[in-house]
Amino acid sequence: MNEARLGILLLSTTAPEQLSELAGRCEGFGFDEVWLAEDYFFYGGLSSAALVLAATERIRVGLGILSCVARHPAVTAMEISSLERSFPGRLMSGVGHGVPAWVRQMGLTPKSPMRALEEAVTGIRNVLTNTEPYTAEGEYFTFQDITLFHPPSTDVPLYLGVIGKKGCELAGRIADGNILSVLAPTEYVTWARELGQQGMKQAGRDGSFSVPTYVLTAVDEDRDVARAAVRESLAFYLDALGPTPLTGAIGINDAVAELSAGGYEALVEGMPEDWIDRLAISGTPEEVARRIEQYWAAGADSVILSPQPADEVGRQLELIAAEVLPRLTR
């Protein structure tokens, strides 16, 4: 089995002033990681990461994902370096395309999203690691004699946040891992990890490849209550995303397309029970613990729980810490 870590995603609907307290509770409960999501236009990703790092002592803090076009890569590198120097070894940063609708709102949609992403992540890594001024002229980003006055004191892990075959292979070529989105079943986790490892080999890179995986999660002594909470969240994401390689990994894209045509309510009412079993983690503490271990076994070195419903995150944290953590074997 790969390294087995357990994290909590603090959804972007969380008020910024609540992040420090919730992160402190996660650390106190014994979770390994806290993850944040820079969704536009909710809390700021880098500023929130700073809040969480300052409010905690040991827990690792993941940021997934920053849109590659929302900031110049050199500025992103500068921000990452500042946080890494202040809190060595605790920051994990993810970069991706960004949700297309939000990127369009800012007039930043690139003609070639994959090319823009590759330029951005390659630039971030070079600015973070080069001891000499970095110069490069790309299709989307220009770097002219850029050097960080305060370079990072340790290596900084950089992840992509992409889906699909090309994206997963690119993650292996240029990044240390790939942050997998909610709706990723265990079959997709295994597939994405293998593609990332193939990408590493293609690029002649050594080392391990990480696949932190977000999973919608609800735990309750009454399994029907937990499954109802996850069902509504699954319907929301399936309605927003439609058929993707995530759901394609278990052969349900045609059914997703058919149900999605009726909108959110049709998904809530018509979603087969099997989808809840395969696309989420829900049920009694024993069932939730067993499902977390299935994700670890599939290759998710870090399982990042997204507590549902979102307005009961405190209660979910307490239940998971008290009833699920003791049942895990790792």
From TrEMBL:
InterPro entries: F420-G6PD/mer, Luciferase-like_dom, Luciferase-like_sf. Residues 14-301 form the Luciferase-like domain. Keywords: Oxidoreductase. It comes from the Bacteria. GO terms for molecular function: oxidoreductase activity, acting on paired donors, with incorporation or reduction of molecular oxygen. It holds the Pfam family Bac_luciferase. PANTHER family: 5,10-METHYLENETETRAHYDROMETHANOPTERIN REDUCTASE, PTHR43244. This is LLM class flavin-dependent oxidoreductase. It comes from Pseudonocardia bannensis.
